[in-house]
Structures are given as C-alpha cells and as structure tokens.
Amino acid sequence: MAFSLRSARLLGTLRKLLTLKHLTHAVITGAAAISVSNLAAQPAPGAPPAMPVAVVEIKATRIPNVIEVMAQAEGAKETEVRALVGGILLKQLYEEGAPVKAGQPLFQIDPEPYKIALDEAQARARQTSREADRLRKLFDKQAVSRKEMDDAVSADEIAQATQKKAQLNLKWTKVTAPMAGISGRAQRSEGNLITTASDGSLLTVVYQMDPIWVRFGLAESDLALLPTGRLTASKDTSVELLKSNGQTYPLKGTINFLSSFIDPKLGTQQFRAAFANPDGVIKPGQFLRAKIQDGFREDAFLVPQVSITQTAQGPMVWVIDDQGKAAPRPIKTGQWIGLDWVVLSGLRVGDRVITDNLIKIRPGAPVVAKPAATPASAATDKPAANPPASDKGQK
Length: 395
Known about the structure:
25% of the residues lie in helices and 36% in strands. By secondary structure, the protein is α+β, with helices and mostly antiparallel strands. The model is unreliable at 26-44 and 374-395 (pLDDT under 50).
C-alpha cells in the first residue's frame, strides 16, 4: 500500500515536468517565429540608397581658340644715344623718363678743345686755299711744274676736309635725340670722362612707345591647343593684354613677327605683336599676360572646373552611366573659359557629368541626378588663363 502511494506521487511529478517542458518549448518556438517575422519585415542589408548628385549635361558649343602666356613689352624702336666725340660731360639737358623730340639736345660735352681744333683747321684751310690759287696762276704761266700745282691742290682739299671734320666734332659735343620717344635713364653723370669706345660712349636710350611691341614665346604644348598646331599672322589672329592688376588693355594687337625656328635655349617659338599705345600706358620692359586668339573651335565641350578631379593618370570626371551608377571618365583638357574647362576628348554629347559630392562617390555607386545649382558658364570672348605650366619664356 505504501509502495502504491509513492508510485502515484512519482507519476504526478513526472507529469508536471513533462507539461513544463512542453510549455517552454512552445514559448521558445513562438519567440523564434516572432523574430523571424520581424527580420523578414525589415529591408535586406547591402543595398544603400541612391545618392543625389548635381549634374550638367554636355552640349557642344563654339568657343575661341585662346592661348595665354607671359609676355614682355619693348619699344617699337629702342635707339641707343652714344657720344661721337670724347671729353668731359658738362651737363645733362633733359629730364630722365620724359618725352623728347627728334633733335632735342640731351647732353653737352666740353666743346672748348673742339673749338680750338676748328680754329686751327680753318686757318690751315685758308692757307692751303691761297697757296693752291697762287700755284694755279703760276702754272698757267708755266712758272711751276704740274706736280707742284697738283700737290698744292691736294693739300688744299685735305685741309678743307679736316675743317669739315672739325666742324662736325664741335657739333657732336652737343648730343641730341635721334628720334622722338621716351628718354631713358642717363648712363653717365656730369663730370664723367666720355670716350668713343663701345663701353664708354653710351649715354642713354630713347624708346618709341607708340606703337609698342610685345614679344612672347609659345612652346609645342601651347601650339598643340590650336586645331592646326601652329600660329599664323592671319586676320583671324588677335592678341589681348592683361596687366598685372588683372585689367584688360582696351586695344587689341596684331602679330607682326613670328620666328621660323625654335629657340634652342627656351624651347619656344618666338612671336611679336604690335599695339597702339597713344597714352603710353604700356611701358618698355613691362611684364604682361598675352591672350592670343586664333579663330574658333566648333563643337567644343565645356565642363565646370569643380567637376574635374586631378589624378596620377591625369584629369577625370564622374559621369552617370546608363544604369544610373557613377563611373569615372578620363579626359583631356584645354584652356579655361570663364569658370569652365575646355574638354578636348573623353566626353560625348549627352553625357551627364557630376558636379558635387565628388568625395563621397565610388565607382558603381547608385546615384540620382538633380539639376546643378550653378550651370556651366557659357563661352565668352574672355577666356581665362591656361594652367601655370603654360607660362613659357618670353625672351
């Protein structure tokens, strides 16, 4: 009887344990089902949303062919003023840097030695002239030989030539301007001994400033920006000047000289342009930037500067491909025009170039286009500078 009671109690305990196990399994199964349903309701990982980017659509346009390089002005004529006779420089007769007229006195060299030399030459010329006249009369009477008469005539001619030379030397003691222009700095001060040697005769320089010439050099890489690969002095070629303050000189120039060979020291072809300079705004020796326009380029592409990335392989842009994803595109650039680069190759009409969020973009990333906040500026007649590497020697 006691055994039966214990067995009944053991069976009851087993039933309770089995019931608890079933309840626990049911709870766990239900929780797992709820978690699976919640995960199924969430979006699948690994699919980032498309990034909104500003784009510009590439269109063909007509732009001027422009090269911008450093240049230097020089007088159309730069004439050295040199002393033709030696002596002590007594006086400077002009103001340095002031305009001078042709024939205007600039320096006075001590004339006294040349006055004395002229007096002696004149006295000698009068004497030989009288002697030659006397011997001619005697020769007519056959009182002297022909040789004596010829010697007298020759001596007179030499004396007359010496007199003219003495007159010129006295005249040359006053040094005058050989042409009208702007005077330069005096190379000798008052009291210096002036000689006729090449290193001691230079007194100053006179510059003709209207017209004024501007010379510059173009490297092969500069000329490659032109469709023909060379620059000619045609009617379609014009030159503008940019001063150091960024202002554009109002008068355009024309090319009046182009070298037929490459400078072996600078590796550039030398050119020169002439500009009207009525107010003397451009000074000889002044450094400027020359913008050379040679016709127009048809069907050119303009891309905002902010959209171009410089890489080790060269410039590139990001474009949106047919699948709506970002794709890198290497390009070849030309000069700047306004706020844009001229793209010579690498793009086609209709390409959509990304202009913002360039740091966040990765190849193949999904993007969605929106209009650019600042559209590509239109082509103007005022192109900006080429990259600094285009500044070549202008000597």
